[in-house]
Amino acid sequence: MDSKKKLTLAVWKFASCDGCQLSLVDCTEGLTELADALEILVFPEISSHSESGPYDISIVEGSISTEADRVLIQEVRRQSHWLITIGACATTGGIQALRNYRDSAECLRTIYAEPSYIDSLSKSSPISEEVSVDYALRGCPVHPAQLSEVIAAFLKGRKPRISSSSVCIECKTRNTTCLLVSDKIPCLGPITHAGCGAICPAFNRGCFGCYGSAETANIPAISAKIIECGVSPDQLSRLIHSFNPPDWFADGEVADE
After folding, report:
1. Based on the domain organization, do 189 and 126 belong to the same domain?
2. pLDDT of 205-229, one tens digit each?
């Protein structure tokens, strides 16, 4: 690749709320120094204009929920040198993947007056289940600073400097008292990947786990601790499944009451 030539960037949306694309728009300050190295060819959130590939970097938001999505992501992968997924929907299936735990046809009948018009796959899948991914960035939505760091890292040919610690470390950094220990407030911070800056605990709300499971998450241990706070197993299951359904149970199950 010619180091003097601008690298081409494409941003793609699948089943999602657009929040992660808006985070990319919020990266203006962090990307200013990289502007001379990037040429945006596809970015529907900011422009209807688009150009065909190939692309040096493709950033993908959203999960795969229709056959058309599946076909498009295969083409995006073929046209992209690097493919980066951003946000819970793209990395683990997101909130819409909650339907994976129910009968898809039943969900359609319950929600839509004319379900026959809905063209939907039986499950909502993360991008990595369809194509190879070069880097996955978590969050709901992703943090602008982390997104800037990932793009900068790929442009400069180095590994992104993204912490692999849990939200608990971020609470300690900002001197936030542990809600789970001191106030018996249900909190997923010990098993949630860092990146948000521990926003919820800072405002006296337990972590909801929107950044997905930390690399060393001990699901049974935190489940038992949260149940001690008066949360039922059913309520705990709902809490753990909210943002990253397929992600949480890779290493353990929710503890029984």
Report:
1. no
2. 999 999 988 877 888 888 899 999 9
